[in-house]
Amino acid sequence: MNAKSTQLIAQWIRPQVRALSAYHVPEVGNLIKLDAMENPYTWPTPLVDAWLEVLRNVSLNRYPDPQARDLKARLRTTLQIPQDMDIMLGNGSDELIQIIAMAVAAPGRVVLSPEPSFSMYRMISAFAGLEFVGVPLNANDYSLDMPAMREAIIQRRPAVVFLSHPNNPTGNLFDEQQVCELIEISPGLVVVDEAYNAFADSTVMPRLAQYDNLLVLRTLSKMGLAGLRMGVLAGSPAWLNELDKIRLPYNISVLTQASAEFALRHYDVLEAQAAKLRDNREQLLAALRVLGTMSKCGGDVQEPPLNGITVYPSRANFILFRVPAGHARRIFESIKAQGVLIKSMHGASALLADCLRVTVGTPEENQAFLKALEHAL
Q1: Residues 307, 377: contact at Cβ < 8 Å?
Q2: Half-sphere exposure (CA, 13 Å, Cβ side) for 212?
Q3: Which residues have C-beta within 8 Å of that of residue 103, sequence separation ≥ 6?
Q4: 294 and 333 Cβ atoms separated by less than 8 Å
Q5: Going along the chain, which residue ranges are E strands?
Q6: CA-CA 20 to 30 A from 189: which of 103, 246, 318, 363?
């Protein structure tokens, strides 16, 4: 970059943006991909053929329905969104998080979330010029530190509180009564992000009528539709009417609308795949625990031997585990060299030191990962 470009960028690009790093997505090549919480299962051939027939009738020369009315009706039934609540769709949940941040952005305002959690909460806050406050989770089990959360909410009065439920990257569900307490004491919006709802058997969706400041965020990505980029926000029509003013028109393409509606008509296939992944998760957790030792806190968390691992409980489609101190990079690279790509969380947070995260795959993919991990240890 020449000096003139450097000068112009320094002049016009906000310092908060210049200080950021772009979100990095690694190249996969021929690796077994267990790094991004994707559903490894594809549709059966007859279903693919039926989907392609639907796409033949899509008019690419016309703009999509800006309100995606047919798709919203299908989503309301499938996701059991209360009839008196509204729905807004986004190009993935990331766009919806960005819309929320843009809507509340003003000098001195704060976004708050427990940490570690979904990295986009912090990143998008910076994009919007908001101050982000991260409240550390309890170190032993990644549960909410309620005294610290209460104090931070009372002192900082956040415009938005984001709660990932189950939490990414730790995999645990927060206590629902504690979540309700945080909604009750928060002066602004509370967004409960249920991206991994299909694997958790827990939702606060029925509580939308109970709390005026609650919004529920969902995505279809973890159900096998990651390529569609479909995020769903449910909440009071009064809130969503304001947020919809910021949403760009036609943000959901005709192909996405047609494909998502078709997929939801065959939701039983997606649910069956999610059930498989829940079973695969339990088998993978059991196998990983063999590499651990006795419980350190009377629960499912496993204390590692010198060459073992700590395994954390999961209600999502991924598992967080801690390797012996100082070995995260070596073990990650060794697993990758054996043809399996997982996610290194080491360095993302002090509470994630020496931690790696693996997405639950097919039984064959999970076995390949376990073999690579055992070799790396």
Answers
A1: yes
A2: 4
A3: 242, 243, 245, 246
A4: no
A5: 32-33, 86-91, 110-115, 131-136, 160-164, 189-193, 214-219, 230-235, 310-311, 318-322, 340-341, 343-344, 355-359
A6: 318
HSE (side-chain half, CA atoms, 13 Å) at 94: 14
- Residue 104: helix, strand or coil by DSSP? helix
d(CA 55, CA 86): 27
Q: What three-state secondary structure class fits 283?
A: helix
Q: Hey, what are 320's tokens?
A: 């967080």
Q: Which CATH architecture has domain 25-43+269-376?
A: Alpha-Beta Complex (3.90)
In total, the chain counts a number of residues equal to: 377
Strands 189-193 and 214-219, bridge-based pairing: parallel
Give the Cα-Cα-Cα angle 363, 25, 234 (nearest 5 degrees). 80
The reply to whether CATH 3.40.50.80 applies to domain 58-265 is no
Rounded to an integer, what distance in angstroms lies between the CA atom of residue 145 and that of residue 178?
10
Nearest one of 23, 346, 373 to 169, comparing CA atoms: 346
Against a cut of 0.90, is the pTM above it?
A: yes
- For residue 126, give every residue at least 6 positions away whose Cβ sits within 8 Å of its Cβ, in sequence order, or none: 16, 17, 19, 20, 132
pLDDT in tens, the chain (377 residues): 688 888 888 888 888 788 777 766 777 778 999 999 999 999 999 999 999 999 999 999 999 999 999 999 999 999 999 999 999 999 999 999 999 999 999 999 999 999 999 999 999 999 999 999 999 999 999 999 999 999 999 999 999 999 999 999 999 999 999 999 999 999 999 999 999 999 998 999 999 999 999 999 999 999 999 999 999 999 999 999 999 999 999 999 999 999 999 999 999 999 999 999 999 999 999 999 987 653 343 345 555 554 578 999 999 999 999 999 999 999 999 999 999 999 999 999 999 999 999 999 999 999 999 999 999 98
CA end-to-end span of the chain, whole Å? 43
Q: Which one-letter DSSP state was computed for residue 174?
A: P
